Amino acid sequence: MTDAAFTPQKNTIQAVYYDGKNATAYPVAIKLSAPDLTFSLLASTDGLNARIHTYPIQDCTLDAPLGQGPRNIQLPDGGLIEIATTPEHRAYLLQQWPQAQGWQPRLHCAFQSSLHWMETHWSTVCIALIGISLSLLWAIKVGIPQVSERLAANLPPAVERRLGEHILNTLNQPALGYFADSQVPASQQQAIQRSLLDFCQQNNCPPHLLLFKASQALGANAIAIPGGTIIVTDGLVNLASSPTEVVAILAHEMAHLKHQHGLRQVLQTSLSGLVLLVLTGDVSSIAAGLPTLLVNMQYSRAFEAEADSDALVQLRKACIPPRLFADMLARLAAKQSGDAPVPELLASHPDTLKRMQPFLKTAPTCHS
Ligand SMILES: [Zn+2]
Q1: Rounded distance, CA 227 to CA 260, Å?
Q2: Tens-place pLDDT, residues 205-236
Q3: Are the C-beta atoms of 362 and 322 separated by less than 8 Å?
Q4: How many Å lie between the centroid of ligand 1 and the Cα of residue 40?
Q5: How many whole angstroms from 248 Cα to the centroid of ligand 1?
Q6: Ion ligand 1 neighbours, Cβ < 5 Å
Q7: Domain ranges of the chain
């Protein structure tokens, strides 16, 4: 950059200059004449002297036009020149810039013209918007779930366990008030554990740890945490009339563990957040949403349907009447009122009656 006397003359256009250090806009006259871009202030200011500022054009970048918006020239020292898009200015830039940069004027003009044509016609803008919306919809409905499933299957088990520990630690925080010590008698807990063991002897259960917790916030509920922990609340145990009825619900939770639904749900939500981040650049809303996601995680309908169909098969294999699961669902649904928490088992299934049907229709198939 050099300083010298400067007199606005023909072959210049007026623009606005930002020095890249503060937000002050300086009106300037610029001139493009290979190999240099020169400009000087149109009025003297405290911050900058009325001097010629000279930059090699090869070191400057002319931003692509966006609709009828102003064109920007990025300067190598972080400064920026903003040129209002008038027909004269557009013609000046199209004439001077390609020559200074050594471009092929015809090619450049054709490319710029077609871009500009697309940006200034509603039809092409609408087609682009529809295309982006459909791509986004496909990514969220199909692409991201498939990627999450593959990712979950290939992640080291330690990662899933660590995620589960994080969720458990969050839920165990006394300030949140989710859990208290279970009041279910030890003998009753052992009976349920034994019943689950019998179930798993007939089915290939994933590694798991069954925990009993009292929870006012969660009510009658069972939760499968990524990594293998299943939490059963006292409310759910009290709703059951036998250990086998609790196991009927645990068959559903076991399917969530087996298919890594928890990890996949976290991955799906995180990847969707990343897509939104790319589109909006809003990091804060995604970061703020993560703790809420971990605590209030609900499975998608597809995951619930998969867990139900797995539970149905496995209950039959273990000779447990599938209708026990339907009975428990009916009792859970009947227990729901106004402010009562909606258990995970019901959260994604507004139509509980329809969901109960396969379990009511199917008789147990004993293996011996
Ligand atoms: Zn579920």
Answers
A1: 8
A2: 999 999 999 998 888 899 999 989 999 999 99
A3: yes
A4: 69
A5: 12
A6: 304, 307
A7: 13-103, 144-361
